[in-house]
Amino acid sequence: MRCSESSAPIGGSELEAVRQRIERWRQTHKLRTRISEDLWTSAVELANVYGLKGTARTLRLDTYSLKERIKATSESPLPQRQSAFVELIAARPGAFAECTVELEQAGGATMRIQLKSGATPDLGALTRAFLGANA
Length: 135
Hints:
The protein is mainly α. The protein has a two-stranded antiparallel ribbon. The chain is elongated.
């Protein structure tokens, strides 16, 4: 299940040091100049610790470009998020008015299930089908 990510940059001393290196690099190079490989390598390492979206946002890098570089390094795949079990209990069967469950795969694919009062699907089976063997 997915909680909404805040739009604020993530923290960490290593992340801040790389952010400062990238900013210094940007100040000394022309617009549209390719970022050096050592900075990309540092960004990939941080994305494996802090996650793709937060790292890209904090370092002001293109998310797609960072994701492709992570994929290219076979020994450092995107980190798998821990799944949490959440039990939904209604006061009586069919008592809830509406509920939305959102699932997100590590690669970014999402699935939203809107439950309305009445019959409910097998959420466990839907989750396993969507997340595959990682569920």
